[in-house]
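Message: Just now I want nothing more than another pair of eyes on a protein record. I am handing you a single protein, as its sequence and its fold in token form. As I understand it, each token names a local backbone shape. Take your time, and here it is.
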Amino acid sequence: MQGEIYRKIRKFAEETSMFEQAAGISAGVSGGGDSMAMLDLLIRLREEYGFLLQVVHVNHKIRGEEARRDQKLVEELCREKDIPCRVYTYDVPYLAGKWKTGLEDAGRKVRKKAFLSAENILREKTGSRGRIFTALAHNKNDLAETMLHHLARGAGIRGLSSMKPVSGGLIRPLLCLERKEIDEYLKERKISYVLDRTNLEDHYTRNRIRHHIIPVMEREINEKTVSHMAETCELLEKTEKYLSCQGRQLLKTAETGSGSFLFRNTFFARPEIIQTYAVREALEKISDQRQDLSLIHIKTVLEMQNKRTGSRADLPYGMEAVRTYEGVALREKKQEENPQEENGEKLWRLPVPGELICPLGTFHTEIFSYSGQKILEKKYTKWMDCDKIKYGLTVRTRNSGDYLVINEKGNRKKLTRCMIDDKIPGEYRDQIPLVAAGSEILWAVGERSGESVRITSGTRTVLQIEYQGRTSENVQCVRKLPDRRRKRDE
């Protein structure tokens, strides 16, 4: 079997050009079976391909003595094989709290940081000769689990085909193997490895898919489920490449030469799926970002075609879509130091993500993935379901016609009535900063928030808004609530 596995890996590497021009490889080795098998195979392959090899081990400080045991095993093997071993230690539980994210997301961030650091070390050793790769030990089962996870969370083709053999500076040498093949290889080669007990628990979504969903599919639907999903992923990857290429070609017709884009009627005459890929490409070009850009932002741009001239929508990273006479303009938002006026009232656009500093205070916004972490209960920090926000957000004080959604059925109550019911003194009602979407109040700062954007079990993306009061000359600032109300809140 071990000879057969080696030949299979070599063939896979040749078909994907995995080690083409590879001068050095950093192997991510946790000490688990998959990564130890990958390291053994890379040691054998380096003799044939001639790349430098080093190991990267990340201690997340989550599992205490077990984590130290894993680190020791990896270090001892590297000494035995005379392979450089880079160990990086991060307090992931602390960082997850600091970054207001889950352990999985925080773990991914620190691993990326570690791999980048190790990559730079390897690049210095190899000079300008060849390419530097980071090798990850994902296999076909990991691919299937990721596909199901992303499918359940509403991912598009890119998300369903996100695990590729070669992706930029990442390679996945084991992606042609199922986990049972790796287990057999470990036995035959007598390779020592450790078992991460957290992989046996059902706390993480991926583990629940691994332990319950895929086994049922293999047992009751098709025993080749994992293999077939890998084949589908390969087909989806080709589809993604084709649609991306078509989207880029269409986007060329919308270029203005000034770093912005104008989508005319001829653009909207093309198939909608190609429009989607073109707009996604445009958003990424302007913002130079992929994170926090989702289908809802693409739809916002496309739907501007049906809005009246002059309509505009705020987008992440300081972008905006504007309906003009010629079509839909997508561009960086012009800096507006002065407030806008609506019905004689001043208001400020709230950038998402970003920061707004205005006479009503400082508002800082962030977007992050939600995976069930505890909702913050701070008075001046609010979490909202980002995907439920349908319009651009503004900051202002109260207007006639303002309302809040007061329950999950969508029932409304006038803002003034809410303030009376909450016994807010009349002299403070016009000073309370409001985060609004049109006439709907999503958050009366320091007071109540609307139920239409409440976090639920179905929430995928969270908008966090943090508020700080601002004090300066010639600016009437928002006063703190009286002690009587603070005590009642406590």
In short: The first strand starts at residue 22 and ends at 28. Residues 471-490 have pLDDT under 50 and may be disordered.
